[in-house]
Amino acid sequence: MAILGLLKHLGGRVAGGELLFQSDVLGRQVNLGNLSERELRKVRGNEIAMIFQEPMTSLNPVYTIGSQMGETLALHQDLSRGAARRKALEFLDVVRLPNAKRLLDNYPHQLSGGMRQRVMIAIDLPPGIRAIANWNFPPLNGRRRKTHEAEAFHRRANHQCAEGERGRR
Question: Residue 46 has what DSSP assignment?
């Protein structure tokens, strides 16, 4: 939470040290702890995102999965509503959610906890975003957890490489 500048919203503070980050959006290396709120907003969601352990604290229960993913993509990637919805569907497929097209019209409470967690990972899939997970797959044993983490990051890396290749053509 300190990396994203969220501690101050909870009454906390960083006592010392530096959080150096090479920001493409700001065009320079920055100390995240010294950025203004306006600068942090540019970095958050465009370059750094947090995947919270409990997705229901991040997903709004009154909006569909598609509208929440679409809003995030439209805001940070400057996409139309239709393009954002197509991109959201693509990202749900990447994290292997079954019936992804149908899930876009579901509300968070209609999904299992694991499905909601995958939605949160999908939200952080856009190329260029460095995701920070504040959890470690506690229900999985050590070997299975490592495999699951490796699979998730491998899928994400492959997806981002494919995005970069498409962009260069």
Answer: T
Q: Residue 2 class from Cβ within 10 Å (0-12 exposed, 13-18 middle, 19+ buried)?
A: middle
And the tokens for 54? 């409990």
Number of H helices, E strands in the chain: 6, 4
Pairwise CA distance, residues 67 & 69, whole Å: 6
**CA nearest to 86, candidates 69, 64, 61:** 69
- Which residue, among 131, 128, 122, 127, has the nearest Cα to 4 in the 3D structure? 131
The confidence score (pLDDT) of residue 72 equals 81
What is the rounded distance in angstroms from the CA atom of residue 3 to the CA atom of residue 24? 16
CB neighbour class for 119 (10 Å; exposed up to 12, middle 13-18, buried from 19): buried
Q: Quick count: other Cβ atoms within 10 Å of Cβ 94?
A: 20
State the DSSP H helix or E strand holding residue 162, giving kind and residue range, or none if neither.
Answer: helix 142-168
Q: Give percent above pLDDT 70 in the chain.
A: 66
Helix (H, G, I), strand (E, B) or coil at 131: strand
Beta bridge partners of 132: 50
